[in-house]
Amino acid sequence: MLAYLIKSFVGAVVVLLVMSFIVFCLQSIIPADPARAIAGPSAPPEKVEAMREQLGLDDPAVVQYGRFLLRLAHADLGTSVRTRRPVADDIQQYLPATLELGLASIALGVALAGVMAALQFLIPGLGGIRLAMVGVGSTPIFLSALLLTYFFWFRLDWLPGAGRLAYRDFAGPTGFNVVDGILVGRPEVSVDALLHMILPALALALPIGIAVGRSLNGALHDVMSQAYVRTARGKGLSETKVLLSHGLRNAATAPLSMLGLQVRLLFGNLLVVERVFGWPGLGLYTVQAFASADLPAVLGVAIVFGILYILVNTLIEIGQSMADPRINL
Amino acid sequence: MSEPVTESVLAVKDLSVFLSREGRPSRVLDDISFDMFPGEIVALVGESGSGKTSIGLTLQGLLPREYLPQVAGSIRLAGIELVGAGRRTWQSARRQLVRAISQDPMGALNPTMTIRRQMRETSGGAGGSIEDWLSRTGLPDPDRIADALPHRLSGGQRQRVLIAMAMMARPKLLIADEPTTALDVTMQAQILDLLRDLAREQQTAILFVTHDLGVAASLADRVLVLYAGRIVEMGRTRDVARNAAHPYSAGLLAARFDLDTDRRRPLPTLPPERTPSINVENACAYATRCPIAQPDCTAIRPPLEPASVHDGAVACLHHDQTSFLLAQRAGTKPWPAQAIQETAALRLSNVGKTYRTGPRSFWGRRQPQPVLRSVSLSIKLGECVALVGESGAGKSTLLRIAAGLVVPESGTVTRFDKLPPQVVFQDPVAALTPWLTIGEQIGERLRAVSLDSGYGRRLVGEAIKLVGLDPVLMDALPAEMSVGQCQRAVLARAVIVPPRLLLCDEPISAMDVSLAATTLNLLSDLRRRLDMAMLFVTHDLAAARIIADRVAVLKDGELVEVADPDAIIAAPQSAYTRSLIAAMPSLQAGGGR
After folding, report:
1. Chain B residues lying within 8 Å of A233, measured CB to CB
2. Using one digit for the tens of pLDDT, what is the confidence trace for A3-31?
3. Are B18 and B69 within 8 A, CB to CB?
4. What is the DSSP letter of A79?
5. Beta-carbon pairs below 8 A across chains A and B
6. Which residues 135-174 of A are in CB contact (within 8 Å) with B?
7. I need a surface site. Which of A152, B96, B129, B533 has the fewest CB within 10 A?
8. What kind of architecture, by CATH, is found in domain B335-421+499-593?
């Protein structure tokens, strides 16, 4: 286990180095002049020149890359062209909202997958569910997000359709509103935060739930016809016990891999969903950064998502080795 | 039969089972009645598809739900009626009364759970810790085994674990469904001894399901012979083994081969199975295959009546004729002499190979472990050499090297010609592509020759006829054919362009007795007719002796002896060969105790 953690840490550093190199190359390829961008479009040439010197843009590429790495190591991701603030500060501000939404969608997705697999397993020959799953699964996320807002907010007005919180000035210690509401003793804030989260989280959870649910269902189907399940039944265990202690664990590996894949797709989907629901997170920040060609911001977010992805992968692999002790990490 | 003193533990009466496949119910068990008594071992014998596994599953209430099983009749286990019983009754019966061990010890244990946890689920009856039970089945180091995961154990160890797990619940009835077929012969003998001892010690009745009357004879007190879901003969093991009353039992016995079988002539076999075009409600299901069938056999359903030749019962209208059938079987013509040339069809010199299967290093690389150490073997043109050894000895690796599928790390492989040798693998169904017709698959080998399609199709037809397959099956898919038919198709594919060398990797180890005998006959015939050299890999010394001109014994990657089969059996040079011979089950051994 320790060897595995060391290995995955080394792997993460290598991946980050490669990614930083790509990011650095992108910066120098893209025909945008950071010096001019920072100095402003109307600045005189000598001011731009001075800025260029200050940024070290005339140094050899290797030196620039070294400096870039050094800054990265100090969590300095440069300055956003749009907000004129350090990208790291922006990310720190928006990350909690995205993490809160992302974690909620993953939890909801896994729950959906479980319910769907359980339904299909307990009621054999349930064709309707399969059809519905294919239908929902093939709906692109921007469409399902819009449909959800249209029905549950615009038509029915059951749930808030935009924003993250009705309490404008609320700011808690962790940035996770649901948690903060409880921490500062204002449960109404937590409830409101949860209500705001339902629609975007559902939009994000649907594809996760369907993909993981189908994979879990297939795996369970295979496992429950294995000889060792017959052995377990032959011991006189109840069907529920057979399913829980012999079926689920052996069926876990494939759906966990699928979950890992889906979480990676989730990063992309967050951009769309945060934009549709006006969710003030990293996704929305990235969309806005795109719109104003804010390269440092985009690249900063890319690096953060990269780190998150490595983290998710490691967690999935640990989960798989816990489910199947034959997998030696 | 003398009146039993003790009360029966299992009483099955008029048991019929229907399973629905694709909406059509089909009868898998037909009017089965039998009793079992405490401590008694009853063998249930039949070919694959006879319904013997279904009986075991029915007695546990574990018939696959997707086939919508319908069970009629009566099963009384320790006085409790189980047909029509509710879920809870079945669960408690499985917990306390009936246990099973299965054919496949590899798959029957949960791979993600330690042995200890799996055994703990067996709520043990009266006393005995997990370690006690593991050591009672002869497992060394029970503490280590209890905490191990199944994949760390060998096949034999796993079967012992399964036996311990079953016996720990002190069941009244143990169903053993071919528990030794997946194991080596030496392991097989030990497991049979263990079952016999446990049955006596704990007064557990054992229903021993097998396709091999020899194995049944070495273990069981009584035999039930099952054909097409019906009991066709039942009686004391010794009686049935010596004096079979039903022509089917007689056929099964005749098809059985051991170390004393006449190897100069074809083995006696059962006539091939045909889809019954007759209504079994008022006919004998065996009539289409039966050599002594009379017109009335397809008009009357033979009842199970007391046999005239022994104390048991038989369902055959003409069972007084069976003894003539038994006397007839020696009359077949011997094989023609095979010309063996001096030139080698295959020569392996000092061949060595390692696999990375050792412990992992820090970066996940495995240490190399030798599977073959400097093996030298040559097969002359027209000669058949059998390679015998237990699992893990390196047999399959050697065959793959001979086929050119695996490249040896040291040594040289020389073949007589450039044509690649053909290989016949263990599982004929898996060796065929499921979505191509048999004709297409056999014809694929003609592509290299480029013939016009009419002529190609004729060649395929000839190859199909050569292996004794019905030419109609040319357009069939593998799923529409039986295992025996698939095996013939695989052989037709191998010999349509006759190779100089045919390599067979355990082609009969998964087959029941009569199919194995048929396959051995077919291979012997083909190699003589097409003048092929053959390497026949097997763990069955009896099969090796019958088919081969020379036997090579492989142990831990080294050849321990190579000689004429009868010479090896008469005077085995190595301890390993001696143990192989000692472990062979024989009709003469055991039985009536």
Report:
1. 62, 94
2. 888 888 888 888 888 888 887 787 777 66
3. yes
4. B
5. 70
6. none
7. B129
8. 3-Layer(aba) Sandwich (3.40)
